[in-house]
Amino acid sequence: MAFPLPRGITPPEISFLAEMEMVTILPRQRLEGLELLGGPVEPLLPPRRASLPLWLALLLKRQRRANILPPTWLHPESLSLILEIETQHHEYQHAFSPPPPLPGQPSLRDRGQRPVAVPRYTPDGGRYYPAPPFLPQNVAQDHVPSGEPPSLPFHWLEVGTMLLDAASDDLVDPDQTRRLLKELREVRTAKIRSGVDVLDVASTGGGGVALTGVGAMEVGEGRGFIAGVVDGLRKIGASKEQARREQMAEDMANGGYDATQDDDDDMEF
Amino acid sequence: MDIDDILASVDRNDVSTPESAALDHQLLTRFWVAERGVSELLPWPEALMNRMMERVRKQIETIEDLAASSSDPTTTNNSNNNPTLNLKLSILQTDLSRTQYLLRSILRQRISKLTKNSMHYLLRVSSAASSQPSQQHPDSQNNSDQQPEDSIPDLTAVTDPSPLSSQELDFLRAHQTLLAGHFGASFLGSFPAQLRRLDDNAGGVSMVQGPDPREVVFVRCLVESVGVVVPPGDGVEVETVGTEMRMGDVWVVRWEGVRGAWERGEVEVL
Amino acid sequence: MSYYDIDSILTDAQKLPCTFELEVPGLGILEGNPGDNIKAGTRIDLPLWLGEMLSIGARLGTSRLVTLDIPSALSERVMNALKADPRTVDLRALAPHFYSLSERVLELFEEEEMVDVLINTFKKRASEIADHAHNPKGALGDGVEFLRGLDETERQLFRVAHDSAKETRIWAGEAKKR
Fold first, then answer.
1. How many CB pairs under 8 A join B and C?
2. C-beta neighbour count of A2 within 10 angstroms
3. 3-class SS at B134?
4. Domain DNA replication complex GINS protein PSF3 N-terminal: where (chain C) (predicted)?
5. What is the pLDDT of residue B134?
């Protein structure tokens, strides 16, 4: 009864997850509201727009029952701007362009502000903070707040690829969009690969490497390799880490340990 | 409809609303990704799974009723309704299959982890049940009747099977008993009695293997900040805190460094 | 050491130079002279698991049977070559389980500098491995020689990088299944 899949969700599963992203559609027929296991679906009343999970939007699109309004970031203009950030900005030379903020996280414009995460509560009383694919990062927006640079959502590659496949006639300039997505993918893959040099900071206890802005499919593609390198580095450095920990224990016993000295381990790609 | 509105309207005490279905779906999805991404078995989310199974059962009833009405000859007079009825049915069925995929994938992933490290989980559950350090097999070295099955710990005192579900514990005990019997019959039976155990640690190498909590995972920080911890060990008696992750960050870190934060819902596994 | 892990078992079978401190009656079989005694000062290569067991006295501070030495795969000469250019060294020829062997040796010897050299080596070679693994046409040119010289840990790394790149291309419709 072996489970054949490797650790971490695979590309088809990542795609499946991305199909839970909400998108905006323009229905071409009426349909009453539905109660699905994935949550309620609002009634379809042309010509009123509706927000649906991508899998359902694609199902309707394939049967010509709806058109999909592409998300704001998927316009060639937005993609060119993002590509410029990824390639031209010194700040993002080794990092990904900033992702859309989570609810309660200040947007790029008001970066100085403090984030405030507001939890919802599960029926069991646990805290729940929503994240992609359950945030409206791929719905069409009529009014983009001025001064807000476009950003790539977590499931950018999957949503973009699926919309190009099934709804290219709904996109502004599908050929240009496809080219830009491909270019973005290449630029960003190169960043992941050049990041091997800093992976040793993730290989010691309490350390880590930031990949903020990375996409879901990019995590899927890099997971095995990155985890393999970090685990390899951890094993090679195990004796040294142990010696350091023992030294720390000794310092603590002598009252000389300063809890802040360990804190400079973080580093960005 | 905005997701925020859906979630904001969730009444904690009423799990029968469509809005609470949306929340449970999100919780299930997040748990699936985590179970697939972490090498150790995560605590079985009993209440969530019970609610999901109940919802699936009801949804299957709804679909069967709808399908019956579509084929019912007495209702064919409103045949102009049928096109949307078929569409509705195909949507409901797709949604059901998607949920079933999640449930099945979670269960299969868990069984794969359990059978890979079966002795580890059996010993973990049984030692949590007995307050005393489980008295290791009194005369294991001399008992000439010893069989591989004797390595399987006594689970009669177990009241809390966590992190397994009670069905998983039943499965695992049966699985390990079959495996031990098979090993015994096919080769261990011809070994000297003291070499027939499945939980030996002679020579400093334990036969009982567990998942490595130091393997790295990809996580997203969902709250203002989360510190990556280093559990006590190597002579250091307290937990120390290393790197700090900030809201919206994605990090590659050791699982043991964020396990607590994951349990509190402060990070999600990607 | 991991009970069911074949790579771990094979690592333990790799050899380590051992010097006998005492004369041991009847152990000449290790030198290929069954029946004879093994003399004090004899230096022979023994598998890691055996050498480690015989050297235990040394670590307990009592009289020791053998003292261990660092294997030639991790000699000063190799470390210098790795410092000069980690990519040109054929690790597989040195030891098929080069890094696993290093981990075990580093448990026995305190060699901080060796850790640093090996970490740098592993990182440099890992990025080279990633480059080759992402090439859909497979290894070409000097790549072939480099890949042939990968140790077992690196081979697994290459395999996982290659497989996930391929799976992603299949998902994107850029490659066919099988």
1. 9
2. 9
3. coil
4. 4-55
5. 46
List of chains touching C (3+ CB pairs within 8 A): A, B
Q: Which residues of C touch B205 (CB under 8 A)?
A: 1-3
pLDDT classification of B132: cutoffs 50, 70, 90: low
Residue A230 is assigned to a structural domain of this protein: no
Radius of gyration (C-alpha) of chain C in whole angstroms: 21
Fold classification of C71-170 is: Methane Monooxygenase Hydroxylase; Chain G, domain 1 (1.20.58)
The domain segmentation of chain C, as residue ranges, is 4-66, 71-170
Q: What is the pLDDT of residue A64?
A: 96
Q: Hey, of A3, A45, A55, A252, which one would you mutate to test binding to chain B, going by the most B CBs within 10 A of its CB?
A: A3
Asked whether the beta carbons of residue C115 and residue A236 sit closer than 8 angstroms, the reply is yes
The answer to whether C1 contacts B209, with C-beta atoms less than 8 Å apart, is no
**Which residues of chain B have a Cβ shorter than 8 Å from any chain C Cβ?**
204-207, 209
Residue A261 lies in a domain: no
Nearest-Å Rg of the Cα atoms of chain A is 22
Ordered domains of chain B (ranges, CATH): 1-70+82-115 (1.20.58.1030), 211-269 (3.40.5.60)
Report the residue count for chain B. Answer: 270
DSSP label of A44: B
Residue A181 in any domain: the answer is yes
Q: Tell me the C-alpha distance between A261 and A244, whole Å.
A: 13
- Min Cα distance C3 → chain B (Å) is 6
Q: What crossing angle do the helices spanning A174-194 and A156-166 adopt, rounded to 10°? A: 150
Query: Tokens 């400079």 appear where?
Result: A264
C1 touches chain A (CB under 8 A): no
Please write the tens of the pLDDT for every residue from C86-127: 999 999 999 999 999 999 999 989 899 999 999 999 999 999
Tokens in use for B70? Answer: 């579509």
Chain B positions in Cβ-Cβ contact with residue C3 (cut-off 8 Å) = 205-207, 209
Does CATH place domain C4-66 in 3.30.70.1450? no
Which residues 6+ apart lie within 8 Å of C162 measured at CB? C133, C134
State the ipTM, two decimals: 0.92
Q: Give the residue with greater pLDDT, B168 vs B201.
A: B168
A245 vs B12, B233, B244: nearest CB? B233
The number of folded domains in chain A is: 1
More confident residue, B98 or C140: B98
Closest CA to A72 of A149, A5, A15: A149
Instruction: Print the domain residue range for A186.
Output: 9-102+125-194
- What's the gap in Å between the CA of B156 and the closest CA on chain A? 26
Q: Say if CB A37 and CB B55 are below 8 A apart.
A: yes
Question: How close does chain C come to B118, measured CA to CA in Å?
Answer: 13
Residues of chain C with C-beta less than 8 angstroms from the C-beta of B209: 2-4
| Each residue's pLDDT tens digit, C135-161 | 766 666 668 889 999 999 999 999 999
**Inter-chain touch C106–A236, beta carbons under 8 Å:** yes
- Rounded Cα distance, B106 and B27, in Å: 13
pLDDT single digits (tens) B176-212: 999 999 999 999 989 998 888 888 887 778 899 899 9
> What proportions of chain C, in percent to the nearest 5, are helix, strand and coil?
55, 10, 35
Mutate to test the interface with B, among C3, C12, C107 (most CBs of B within 10 A): C3
> Which pTM was predicted?
0.91
Interface check B11 vs A, CB under 8 A: no
Chain A closest CA to B154's CA: distance in Å?
A: 25
DSSP 8-state code for residue A107: P
- Nearest residue on chain C to B116, alpha-carbon basis: C4
Minimum-distance CB partner of A224 among C99, C126, C160: C160
